Amino acid sequence: MASIDVLYSCSSCHRKYALEELSSAQQLCKDCRRKYPSVQCKFCQLDFHQLDSTAHESVCEQCSKEHRQYGKPKNCSICNLLTAFKGDTCTRCTHSRKKYGPPIKCDTCKLCCAFVKSDESKKKVDGKTLCLLCTLNYKKTMFKKRQRELEKSGISNKKQKIERSEDEHRKVEVVDPFNNEIMQQLEKAQYEIVALQKQTSPRLRKAGRGQ
Questions:
Q1: Which segments does the entry list as coiled coil (predicted)?
Q2: Which residues are registered as beta bridge partners of 47?
Q3: Which of 46, 75, 72 is nearest to 59 (CA)?
Q4: Span 141-163, mean pLDDT?
Q5: Could you point out which of 60, 82, 104, 181 has its C-alpha 20 to 30 Å from the C-alpha of 12?
């Protein structure tokens, strides 16, 4: 019996897609990700797509939910972000501490707010141990770098096409004068032949009358 592919709804347009086509955080399809602006949450500092155009503040769904439930947050004792809605640590750091153990120093910001992740996770950030914000900044930097490389590659390919076109044009220009020169030589030779024929023609007529 053939397997049936499971489809999931986009949280905005509700059209069905494969899970890998939806964003992991908000489950938005590609079209909706383009439609709604990407903004930064004023609490957790994470980027998200703001679906509500009437919202006065940029607050992600998770922080908005905790804010309604627990009230105004304070700075987390681990990541120092304004995300501790309940207790001294934020939900994310509380979960990470249970899963990975006590926090350690981040290789970039040097603050004790990173957690020991798997080797597979480290490979994504060049083998470094990074906190959440430094991980996001690293990925943004690499994304922009790849974009510049792609743009540079596109410009380079376009330049190569132009150069090839110019080379072909120059080849035509080199061939054309050569052909023109040959034609001129042929025309000159034909003119000389006609001139010789005119010169020899009276002599032949005189020779014929002499006979």
A1: none
A2: 40
A3: 46
A4: 78
A5: 82
